[in-house]
Amino acid sequence: MTTIRLTMAQALARFLTKQMTEVDGEKVPIFGGVFAIFGHGNVAGFGEALYGVRDELPTFRAHNEQSMAHAAIGFAKASFRRRMMAVTSSIGPGATNMVTAAALAHVNRLPVLLLPGDVFANRRPDPVLQQVESFEDGTVSANDCFRPVSRYFDRITRPEQIIPALHRAMAVLTDPAECGPVTLSLCQDVQAEAYDYPESFFDERLWLPRRTRPSEDELAAAVAALRGAQKPLIVAGGGVLYSGATEAVRAFAETYGIPVSETQAGKSSLPAAHPLNMGSIGVTGTSASNRLAEEADVILAIGSRLQDFTTGSWALFKSRQQTVIGLNPQLFDATKHRALPLVADALAGLKDISADLGSWRAPESWTRSAKEGRAQWFVDADKATAPTNAELPSDGQVIGAVNRVLGSEMTLVCASGGLPGELHKLWQAGSPGSYHLDYGYSTMGYEIAGGLGVKMAKPDKDVVVMLGDGSYLMLNSEIATSVMLGLKLYIVVLDNSGFGCINRLQMATGGANFNNLFRDTRHQTLPAIDFAAHAASLGAISKKVASIAELETELEAAKGNDRTTVLVIDTDPLITTEAGGAWWDVAVPEVSDRPSVNAAREAYEAAIKAQRIVN
Hints:
- By secondary structure, the chain is an alpha/beta fold.
- It contains 24 helices and 23 strands.
- It has a six-stranded parallel β-sheet with strand order 5-4-6-7-9-8, sandwiched between helices. Strands 14-13-12-15-16-17 form a six-stranded parallel β-sheet, with helices on both faces.
- The longest helix is centred in the middle third of the chain and has 22 residues, at 364-385.
- It holds the Pfam family TPP_enzyme_M.
- One of its GO terms (biological process) is inositol catabolic process.
């Protein structure tokens, strides 16, 4: 066996350069690069190794460990999980800053390779700078925080351990069912230790998506359920996009006359203009989708984990004779709420169902009724997005302006606050992947960093980031990185002077206006934050606009700008789109001395009776 002597870190870096995939028939590196913030726990070992492969595996410098991991996740999501990035930090706060991002990737089933530095395996200098010590367990380090939010976790305490660890890591990162974050915790002394690695370890390997076919019995049960359906509905989740099954969903819906609703992750599975696209479903759903969900007797959930926002906390699906078919490569998701499991890749599963359905078609009356509801929804949506002369515009009016000027083909990025609900209902998405939301973990601060990752994955496409002032204040540093890398973003900041979304939820559950909007917080002076000036200080072109009309003018002008542009507009924190939507289970206190809370509790107790409890 021929070997080559390398440090563990050098072997890791070289291995990453040899992993390949295919995109549109072209072989490309599966890793788009490595985001790195160096410290004493990784600069001497992995930092030196990355320098050695800098022409094959580019290293990108960011400003915050959490946000660089968000950018890597945004890259993977925008690449439909076909490509990904690695992220490395030092030990201590650099590592634990990435835990939130790991949770985001875990919830959303997105691949990212996290490579935090760790303590010395030989323990000679214990406790090393930034080491977290357990009084009860000498093997614990701060990186154990990654265990519950990683699909695979390993701590590398000997240089040869990187061989099986990387093989397992790649298997998880590229598997449709297992996909999620992998953490390889790199002891800093081991990074620098040498080993005679087999040359075969560095052979080029091509990773292609696995397309699991359904079992005969599960397929037969799913087909039988659909054949008996009088009111079928498709729920398109993120798995439709990751499988590359958007065209298959379109053909399936058209062939069988089945209306399609979309989750946050699945939005853009069909173009918004398609006559069978009923739009968003659930708590943030359209009236068209949610009426059908209430009445449907068979729901074909494709690539969805059916979280509470999709199902209206399992109170939306009101038909007690309703059957859910879970078409999903992951058994855990396919069997939720006693669904008929169809464990398969979305594209493969749809092909097999189609082969067996024959000439069956949904009743014309159901399809016609769906289209009528869709037409009515667009009347309501147009009202919500139309400009007015109001002193403070609504989120919906800002969304309408951005959509009108920038179009439906650019990629929209968002994550948290009130915007995801309004965007899910109102944004008119065009091509697959043009709607990019983290609404599994709904992570404040993901937006700008995630937008950077999207732009890295789609350098020739326009990317617009929409976020509130709360998210901007939490994490904005990658504006500077976007300028540094020459990756232009459109960023629209909606300033409602606080956490407007949660303030509305607080009011809806009987609570007092407290600690959400700036005016309702403990303060001596209310801050007058100049977001435009701040963005300019990070290198962006920026401006605060005073109206929807001025926003549209500046968005049009931004098309000619040579770098990231940030536009800020004040908005009303209380207005939200009234049409559409469904109940969401937010527990209200059983006991309170406030009449508004007691009234909200009474309404809550009535609402929970509609929940489908069949777990």
